[in-house]
Amino acid sequence: MDLSSDLKKEMYWMMLLSRRLDERAWVLHRQGKIAFHISGIGHEAGQVGAAFALRKGYDWVTPYYRDLALMLSLGMTPRDFMLSLMGKSGEPSSGGRQMPSHFSMRSANAVSHSAPVATQTPHAAGIGLAIKMKKEDKVVLTTIGEGSTSQGEWYEGVNWAAIHRLPVVFLVQNNQYAISVPPELQMAVKSSADKACGLGLPGITVDGTDVFTVYEAVYNAVEHARKGNGPTLIEARMYRITPHSSDDDDRTYRTREEVEDNKKRDPVTLARDHMIQENLYTEIELNALDAKAKEIVTDAVKYGEEMPFPAGEEAAYPVYIEEVRRD
Ligand SMILES: Cc1ncc(C[n+]2csc(CCOP(=O)(O)OP(=O)(O)O)c2C)c(N)n1
Ligand SMILES: [Mg+2]
Fold first, then answer.
1. What is the pTM of this model?
2. Which of 48, 60, 186, 244 could form a disulfide bond with 179, CB atoms 3.0-4.6 angstroms apart?
3. Cβ(205)–Cβ(164) under 8 Å?
4. Which of 38, 47, 148 to mutate to test the pocket of ligand 1 (most atoms within 8 A of CB)?
């Protein structure tokens, strides 16, 4: 696909910003300043490529917890993310009530998900059905990890979308682990995309470390859906460079050599190399961008630290409410 220089630069920036923000979250956790972090490091190409293939704020998204780069690409700010990590007042997903990274955002049509994995899949199918009934040309993107494609909800959601040819793109981020469990213990097929033939929709596997490859695959699937041709299942293959979460010790189930080896396909480094090779940026410009990303992250941390915690008496809103508030 022939992409404009500006588009490539925008994508690179989102990947870089997400990476620097994510790295800072780990530091904050180890400093004891936040309780929990679940990381998208290694997932940036898959998420940014997918987000840029959508009409932002027009199409719908039901994301999952690793989708930091996806959400930033759809307009969530680093400050918003810090509020989520710190459980502070004003946090857009839940006002600081949800676990961090349980993303939702009204302006991006991004719908909140539950902690049980795969619930976002039937949600996406339901939204797809609503779009079809309303005869709109919108599309739903839903994301998930490969391990969670073992869940019943996942099959039910994909099956329903396939039967009714709903405008849904199912993006599986195959990062080679479900906490400690490798894909071969989750499925007897080689790729989550192979499951598509049993459910009656197209399924493809792509290199999820290359942002432009993912963009092209999701773009084509989105256009296919928008024209009323139904859903597509895309598996983007990548590697979870960090432990599962801040509370996981991955040394108990994988070697350091394996992790180091997979860092050779670090999506942010690959995109950076592409920028140089295509003369889109010089080394000096790239270093300046990096400094800018770090500055934005530092500002977000300061902002988060200065914000108050939500008022205790509001803890149950909107779980239990006296009257319905529409704001
Ligand atoms: C129904 C359910 N079972 C188990 C869990 C605990 N859990 C949280 S994340 C996770 C691993 C999911 O792995 P995968 O789908 O590959 O996504 P990844 O975390 O690798 O991105 C598990 C088992 C859960 N949240 N929900
Ligand atoms: Mg996984």
1. 0.96
2. 244
3. no
4. 148
